[in-house]
Amino acid sequence: MEKPFAITLSVNSSLANHTGSWRVEKPEYVHRMPPCNNACPAGENIQNWLYIAEDGSYEAAWRALIAENPFPAIMGRVCYHPCQSVCNRAELDEAVGINSVERFLGDHAIEKGWKIPAPAIESGHKVLVIGAGPAGLSAAYHLRSMGHTVIVRDATHAPGGMMRYGIPKYRLPREVLDAEIDRIKDMGVIFEMNTRVDDVHEALNEGFSAVFLAIGAQLSKRAYIPASEAARILDAITVLHDVEDGNQPLLGRKVVVYGGGNTAMDVARTAKRLGAEEAIIVYRRTRDKAPANDEEITEALEEGILVKWLSTVKHAGENSLQIEKMALDADGFPQPTGEFETLEADSLILALGQEVDFSLLGNSADLDTKDGLMPVDSTMMTSHPGIFAGGDMIPADRTVTTGVGHGKKAARNIDAWLRKTSFEKIENKDIVTFDQLNTWYYTDAPHVVRERLEATRRAKDFSEVVKGLDESNALYEARRCMSCGNCFECDNCFGVCPDNAIIKLGPGKGFEINLDYCKGCGICVSECPSSSIVMVPDK
Amino acid sequence: MLRQVEGSKAVADTVAACRPQVICAYPISPQTHIVEGLSQLVKNGELQNCEFINVESEFAAMSVAIGASATGARTYTATASQGLLYMVEAVFNASGLGLPIVMTVANRAIGAPINIWNDHSDSMSQRDSGWIQIYAETNQEAADLHVQAFRIAEELSLPVMVCMDGFILTHAYERVDVAEQEQVDQFLPPYAPRQILDPSNPVSIGAMVGPEAFTEVKYMAHMKTLSALAVIPKVAKDFEIIFGRSSGGLIRRHKTLGAQTIVIALGSVLGTIKDVIDEMVAADIAIGVLGIIAFRPFPTTEVREALSQAKRVIVLEKAFQVGVGGIVIDNVREALRGTNTAAYTVIAGLGGRPITKQSLRSYFDKAVNDQVEELTFLDLDKDLADAELAREAGR
Amino acid sequence: MSTTPIKFYQVGSFAVGNRLLSADDRSIQSDPDRTNALTSGHRACQGCGEALGARYALDAAMRATNEKIIAVNATGCLEVFSTPYPESSWRIAWLHSLFGNAPAVATGVAAALKAQGKSDIRVIGQGGDGATVDIGFGALSGMFERNDDVLYICYDNEAYMNTGVQRSGATPPAARTATTQAVGENPGNVFGQGKNLPRIAMAHEIPYVATATVADLRDLEAKVTKAMSFRGARYIHVLVPCPLGWGSASCDTIKIARLATQSGLFPVFEAEHGEVVASTAIRHRVDVEEYLKLQVRYSHLFSPKRRDDVITHLQSIADKNIARYNLISDESASS
Ligand SMILES: Cc1cc2nc3c(=O)[nH]c(=O)nc-3n(C[C@H](O)[C@H](O)[C@H](O)COP(=O)(O)OP(=O)(O)OC[C@H]3O[C@@H](n4cnc5c(N)ncnc54)[C@H](O)[C@@H]3O)c2cc1C
Ligand SMILES: Cc1ncc(C[n+]2csc(CCOP(=O)(O)OP(=O)(O)O)c2C)c(N)n1
Ligand code: SF4
Ligand code: SF4
Ligand SMILES: [Mg+2]
């Protein structure tokens, strides 16, 4: 076709005009820190594995998850999910049910029998892990993945630590626990059970290059309670341990539990399941001050557990207890009122917390302890070179997840130490806040509540109380994630650029800015739902 | 086929024989009969594959024509007077875009005061619009010029305005040899557009052009328009070969050989002038007539050549530049540059005032003796006008 | 492409694409091989809503017609920024004639296509609000009345932007423009004037009339797609914020369009043969103030003296739209 001069132009010829020169700022894709990831004590990349799970790639999601934490099925049951407490979605409707998706992935993996491969190359280093609780197991898992020979020694006859001997099975069925631990065994971690370590230094001489201490806090705290001879006083840890070992403790018809933590809830609920007609918790302070997880308190109350808030045990008799009512003072501390009450009680179970049993230190003086705990440096190393520690025995939150996180962190540092390098974690503290998201693009989608066993039924046996999500619910829940700070390929930037200056690289590859044409208007940044693009100065 | 028909009908039938694909028009006297005729032909199926669009204004008419032409359709419209002015913006646009639209202007005066009768103010106002303008002397020529207009337009990719005097031609019943379809088909090949809006080969038509290229664009338009001076006679010759009669061309001479005085005019008035001139020639007065058919582009060389022997030139015009004088005369003077030929303008027939043989004769008689002013308004009631001017001035 | 909202919880049907949706459920704009009817290198301002709206609409039209479209463009920003010699940003067959004649030129294109038996090629007329509601209004009405087979799209940025932000018949009351200055007792544009072209279009009882914004891409695409399923005259009125003329941040273009809809100031609806058949419910209702305060053209309503009277007046316009077009559905009210 003959094109008249100047008046008629060739199509697409403006591609020669590089409008990028107008720009003073340019957009840049970033990976920011979602609050959930930041809050996860095990350092999971939650947003990432949710993202992978969203399209039904469960195995890939599970593998991404276990790169940080080998226990999704356990986490999905016992983790107090601090991630959800900070989830940005909570400000839109409700937090994403991260924990339930995690459980789904964990259960799904067990069902499918997915395995973790043994390391391809053996490092030749031998590491001893003392204690098969979550901290020890996590360290063993990560160390083994890195190719080290790992031996785990534990005093009990089955691994799991408090996950087995503390947390009752109606919250954490043992098949689940066993399945996730077995996977670690299958990687070639050597378990030496019924092997109490009485001297760390001796162990070091056995040819281990490093040791990870994760002995937890096994000793129940005692409180002085005036008691008559006939009074039956037990401690919660022992009770739960006995139950696990099949040694039915004698508790009687009426059981009083003293304490306000999770252990108190668990032991009271266990007592009910063991046949106690009545289980009463006595706690000094109010419900909102109780250290127990609120969900657990609710579940306990649902099961018919009674709680005497603002009460202390004054005296324990044969079949009764005297308790004193407390009142909160101006500062919110409970103060005795001098008002007393008598409770019928066949037994009193103390659930007042645990202490670390340092007897394994032997006569070593070069392992420092402080306030009954063992301090570690930023690499998780104790005052003794090559000896690292984590879990309940070091100053930190006492949760399974924290222990898992310690195990991971310690493993990475042990590995570095063995290789005579140092492990540098790139800290991303660019945490995404709710107001940085463009939530218009997220459809309202309320949280799926996990089904629970009917309360009257569940107090009768040890079957699991909280049910998992089925696949469609899990998918729904995963898709509620807003992908804070990380591109989830919604194509918004690609669509909203008035200058077509965004290149779509294809599934999983994200996008790229075509700086030839980007004028720097910033619409892509404004309309990115997940705050994964930022404007930065250009030139 | 020789028929006794109204001029408008002859034009309508001829246009139809040119197989236009889009016709759009908005009614205005004295153009109405042409478009009514075409509408009828489309409606009754005689003219097929043609869309007749009843638009809401002349501006829309020309705009529709622009769209249609740019999409490769042979496109026709017609208007007059106020209608032509109403479409002006689009008139310029059509030529700027080089769209070979053919438009009949049924010449009519422009208001105010509103006046439906004939003169040339309308088409003359568009002399710089970039359109080719050809003026018909008779209904036969009016009809024939339309066939030629499509050829010229499409060959040059420029729009062509065929000007015919309103009422005098459009509404006159005369014997016209209306072009036969086979002959037209032989003469006028299907429209092969220079460029076309086509999704399978897209272009962007109608760019904004700045100072860096605007002069070149305009110069090229000028040169292209000038090239019509070669195309128009060629087309007229082809026409004569196929149709066996002579019509069109750039100029038409009548008794100019040896004439000392040559009268120049456009359109139907040439007939009356010829009658007068014939009488004068019979009385041994050396006078002739030069009809200008192609006014845009102006055939300066041909006119110069035709006037080369003359001592004086009279330009009879049906429009004028208020505050200046004649319009055509400017172009004629250009052709006379370097000679000392005298040139007089006579403005006649404004707003439909009859141009009588008598008035012409008396004016020519004076003019051949150089006894006329440079500018004369024929048959002006000067006393009345002067009295009114004096009255208004006195206020 | 489906028009029913997709049951997809994370980003619903609001985002441009999302990898989780099947290709059919994604917007046309999400397609890496989308046509880009208006390509890069055009000279629109940073963040121009009109450039965006035009690409959205025309890509959808291309998809709906198997890329067989011809567009006729009125004079205005869109024309000027897309085709300054020697470069064109279009990749479609495109014609610019004049400011006031795009609808008629489009009619001519459609007529030519029909006469040539090429009715598979579809015609789009397009222009700014000035071209549409003012100077080209007669031509548009004529095109509607004849029911010519043209989809006319108005990119409404509520003023004559190309000539430097003068008032048009679509400029909202109280808005400051270069010819409705923010001075005097009643600063900005007067109340009670202006044309509601979608309603005028409906009065012609043409097959299809719709409003849309650049803030709801899927809706816009669906409407263009639907419009292409009709023959005859169709009209889509797209709100396209203009950072330059409105005095808004270039990054806020879509946000402002969204607030226009969520405040009720710009009702989004569809009409067939003169009757409203659907409207888009407000999802998160906001006061008009939320919308106004992002734009310098309304800044005189907030300082130096706050003009609650004017803001209230504008709010009442929004409220009226909400009632008239049923913009608060029972569903959205309860959520
Ligand atoms: C009843 C109860 C319920 C709980 N519920 C939850 C819950 O729902 N969610 C949650 O996150 N946390 C819960 N916790 C806390 C959580 O279980 C602990 O914080 C966590 O298990 C600590 O892990 P760890 O690896 O440090 O120690 P542990 O789990 O205590 O494991 C330490 C292991 O070391 C072994 N060991 C100790 N000394 C030696 C030695 N000298 N030689 C060899 N082996 C030794 C022990 O046998 C034990 O197996 C609960 C705790 C209790 C008591
Ligand atoms: C007949 C005519 N009058 C005036 C102009 C000047 N003019 C060109 S574009 C324009 C304003 C365009 O406004 P609008 O149609 O709203 O488009 P925008 O530029 O705002 O997108 C004006 C007044 C013109 N080109 N033609
Ligand atoms: S929305 Fe997703 S990424 Fe954001 S905090 Fe919640 S779970 Fe994490
Ligand atoms: S003035 Fe407004 S409409 Fe025109 S290019 Fe700039 S932003 Fe777009
Ligand atoms: Mg505008």
From TrEMBL, chain A:
InterPro entries: 4Fe4S_Fe-S-bd, 4Fe4S_Fe_S_CS, DPD_II, FAD/NAD-bd_sf, FAD/NAD-binding_dom, Helical_ferredxn. Residues 478-508, 509-538 form the 4Fe-4S ferredoxin-type domain. GO terms for molecular function: iron-sulfur cluster binding; oxidoreductase activity. It holds the Pfam family Pyr_redox_2. PANTHER family: GLUTAMATE SYNTHASE [NADPH] SMALL CHAIN (PTHR42783), GLUTAMATE SYNTHASE [NADPH] SMALL CHAIN-RELATED (PTHR42783:SF3). This is Unannotated protein.
From TrEMBL, chain B:
Residues 259-358 form the Pyruvate:ferredoxin oxidoreductase core domain. CDD domains: TPP_PYR_PFOR_IOR-alpha_like. GO terms for molecular function: oxidoreductase activity. Pfam families: PFOR_II, POR_N. Residues 16-234 form the Pyruvate flavodoxin/ferredoxin oxidoreductase pyrimidine binding domain. GO terms for biological process: response to oxidative stress. Keywords: Oxidoreductase. The keyword Oxidoreductase applies. This is Unannotated protein. It comes from freshwater metagenome.
From TrEMBL, chain C:
The keyword Oxidoreductase applies. Residues 75-238 form the Thiamine pyrophosphate enzyme TPP-binding domain. The keyword Oxidoreductase applies. One of its GO terms (molecular function) is thiamine pyrophosphate binding. InterPro entries: PorB-like, THDP-binding, TPP_enzyme_TPP-bd. Gene3D superfamilies: 3.40.50.970. Transmembrane segments: none annotated. Keywords: Oxidoreductase. This is Unannotated protein.
